Amino acid sequence: MSTLFEQIGGEAAVDAAVNKFYRRVLADDRVNEFFEGVDMERQAAKQKAFLTMVFGGPHNYTGKDMREGHRHLVQRGLNDSHFDAIVENLGATLKDLGVADDLIAQVAAIAETTRDDVLDR
Amino acid sequence: MTFHFEGRKIQAAQGETVLDALLRSGEPVGHGCKAGVCQACLVRVQSGPVPPKARQGLALPVAEQGGALSCCLKADEALDLQPFREEDLPWVAAKVTRVRHLSPDVIEVKIEADLAVRPGQFLRVKGEGMERAYSVAETTGSLHAFHIRLIPGGQMSALWAQVQPGAALTLQGPFGRSVYDPAHPDRPLLLIGSGTGLAPLWGVLNDALAQGHRGAISLYHGAASSAGLYYRDELEAMVGVHYVPCADAVTDPRDRPGSPLAQALQDHPDLTGYAVYLCGSPGLVNAAQRQCFLAGADMQDIFSDPYVPQGVKA
Ligand SMILES: Cc1cc2nc3c(=O)[nH]c(=O)nc-3n(C[C@H](O)[C@H](O)[C@H](O)COP(=O)(O)OP(=O)(O)OC[C@H]3O[C@@H](n4cnc5c(N)ncnc54)[C@H](O)[C@@H]3O)c2cc1C
Ligand code: HEM
Fold first, then answer.
1. CA A12 vs CA A7, A121, B53, B106, B275: distances in Å
2. Does domain A8-118 have CATH number 3.90.1150.10?
3. Which end of chain A is more exposed for a tag (fewer CB within 10 A), N or C?
4. Nearest by CB to B33, which of A19, A26, A59?
């Protein structure tokens, strides 16, 4: 049985999704303020790291990394509604790319496991 | 086994990654995904084996300068590594060979320096107790050209205003990623800049033509007034380049009024598949990054150099 990451399409799927996903996020007034002033060149790699992680691909981020990496955003008001918006944009991106609903649900489930860490609770 | 990092011997286990060995030895290297994606663990390889995976996704000039992802390097006796700190590049001596005016307040300064630079990158120049960045508009062998705007009251500008052929300079570099990539000869190029932001664009443009670029090339150059649009005649005469001069205060009928960004997006509303180069005032460059991305250009295909003033703290 292949892994979720392989079923979605691996690194190629990350490459295909990264610009579509980040374009959606930047166009989304619910969350784009958190990405204000973030350098575009460095973003590509960071967004790929995010997608690889939620696609179930290889990474070594810990819950502590997620907590520390988003704490400055929590201090700026990051909450459940923003988290939901990111997951929604993620789902819409994957749907656009023709990924099957059950795989999208598995991606959303992985994202869900990080909620308390990302929101620092 | 051991390898070298900044001259220090680092102990590593067989099969261990360089990043893991560095972290275990207490070296303060950045790191994130540890899987070759986030690029946080970049190091400079002086010598030793680098698998392709360790350079995957790196910008061309970063890879050329020895950059590699330490999470994808296997510990190896032959590896000699440095932190990837650009400020560590050596300072080299240079000589001014020619100075001429391109417009009332822009000069071209040609220099001779033993540096391998790609057109579009920038160098740092030492002044009296300060350093300033200048983009390389032309480079052939050891000869390089800057376009420099003389800013009234500017510290470095005061030195440039007096510079003569034969003057000695001290330079460091190259820096920056805004270079032509010959791997994509057919994609359209959109170049947007203001003032001396034309310097790297001129460099990229000529490099693209010299390397046989086949896709369309469009250049939108803006200035406060028509008189500031230097290189106008050269650009108008250039075959294979769609040149659009823009000015806030138009006094030349050939110029379009307003911002080069607005003009460019009006002509090119869909930037899917484009490479975009943005240089000049930070306000223009930052707005353009975002707008060009939302118009369809991909993140990794947007190259920008905001001319952030270094004399004032941001
Ligand atoms: C990556 C990079 C590449 C650059 N490439 C070039 C180049 O190719 N050609 C070039 O001419 N400059 C370039 N610059 C800008 C250059 O580095 C200096 O900032 C500029 O020459 C002014 O230096 P100064 O010492 O004369 O002025 P400073 O003494 O630093 O500043 C004097 C005053 O002028 C203001 N000021 C500074 N820059 C500008 C500006 N561009 N427009 C209006 N006001 C300004 C400052 O805010 C300050 O109030 C580049 C900057 C960067 C970061
Ligand atoms: C859905 C769960 C989430 C996961 C798994 C996740 C994961 C990640 C990862 C892996 C990184 C890169 C870290 C690095 O190596 O530098 C990152 C950075 C970032 N994330 Fe998240 N994230 C999530 C939710 C969110 C949300 C809800 C927001 C804001 C609305 C957000 C905003 C950011 C920002 C702004 C950065 C930093 C960019 C930078 O510093 O350049 N993230 N995230």
1. 11, 34, 14, 46, 20
2. no
3. N
4. A59
